Amino acid sequence: MVSSLHDGMNLVAKEFVASRNQNDGSLILSRFAGAAKELHGAIIVNPYDIEKAAEAIKHALEMAPEEQSRRMKQMRLIIVRNNIYSWAATLLRTMAAIN
Question: pTM of whole model > 0.85?
Answer without folding.
Answer: no
